[in-house]
Each structure stands twice: as C-alpha cells, then as structure tokens.
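Please decode residue identities from the backbone states below.
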C-alpha cells in the first residue's frame, strides 16, 4: 500500500469560509479579529457594564426607532467578524438582516476583558473608524476609564473624548444627547 499525499482543500474565498465557520461555531459565540477566531466568554462584570449602558440609553434608543443588541457586525474585505458588547442600530436595518456593517450603527460599545483589551483599544477602534461607525465607546475595565471616539476617517477617529475615569459622567452627543453615568462600570 503506497502512502497517499494529503489532499489539498483549496478555498476559493477564505474570508467567506472563515465567516461561515464562525457563524456555525458549535460552542459559545465567537468573533474573528484580524483572522483569529476568539471565543466570547464574557464575565459578569463585563455584562454588568454592558447592561448598565443599555438601561441608560434605552429611552433614546426607543425615541430614535432603534434597537440595542450584541449581534454580528461584518467588515467585508477583511478577516473580521465582530460581536460588540452593545450596538445601536435603526430597527429597519435589522429586519431580515444577517450581519450588519459598522456604518449602519449609531453607536458601538466595546467593554474590555482581560483577554481582549488590546483588540478593543487598538484593532477594533481602527477598524470601526475605517468602516464608518459614527460613535465608538470604549469601556476599558483594566484602565478603569471610558473613551468616546467620533468622526471616523480613513486613518482612524478624528475626535476623542477621554479617557475619563469611571465615575465621571460622559456625554453621548446627538442623536443620543445624554449623560452616561459610568460609576457602575
């Protein structure tokens, strides 16, 4: 019996294959950050911060005809598939949609965890700006601060408000126009 060389399974579209695999991940939810699959296992403290934000922005979300969720964001042409802690999206954009694009959001919130802090601080901030997310709120639990990034451009966000230590109110500009209490983060 002769040894057969291993079969090669060439993939015509690696980005599409990777994103298909992540949507059908058998265990917990997962995202792809620069081509690396990262399982999501948020801690209670992570979920507490995200929940606090959702409660505070809910009146504005309803007034704007939006929904806030933690669901899939695709970044076409890149090996990225993100699941933010909170994304605020117009309700008509989510009807029948699979993944949405960052520029379809009004606000994206990422809450850092011990294992993903640098991805949220550096990679996602750059990619969200590149893909036109108008507001990106980084809740950095390691640094115990919040930073709001706005006015996205090709080289990143051109406006930064923060970092502000937890406990300092943070103004979310229009269309939200509200003060976010950061003491629960």
């Amino acid at each position: 019996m002769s040894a057969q060389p291993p079969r090669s399974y060439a993939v015509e579209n690696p980005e599409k294959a990777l994103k298909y695999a992540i949507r059908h991940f058998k265990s917990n939810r997962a995202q792809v950050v620069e081509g690396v699959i990262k399982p999501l296992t948020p801690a209670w403290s992570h979920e507490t911060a995200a929940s606090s934000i959702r409660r505070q922005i809910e009146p504005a979300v309803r007034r704007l005809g939006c929904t806030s969720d933690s669901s899939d964001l695709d970044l076409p042409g890149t090996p990225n598939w993100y699941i933010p802690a909170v994304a605020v999206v117009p309700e008509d954009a989510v009807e029948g949609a699979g993944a949405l694009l960052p520029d379809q959001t009004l606000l994206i919130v990422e809450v850092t965890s011990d294992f993903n802090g640098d991805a949220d601080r550096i990679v996602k901030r750059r990619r969200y700006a590149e893909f036109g997310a108008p507001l990106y709120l980084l809740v950095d639990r390691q640094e115990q601060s919040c930073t709001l990034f706005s006015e996205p451009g090709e080289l990143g966000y051109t406006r930064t408000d923060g970092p502000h230590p937890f406990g300092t109110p943070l103004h979310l500009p229009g269309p939200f126009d509200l003060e976010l209490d950061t003491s629960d983060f």
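Observation: The radius of gyration is 18 Å.
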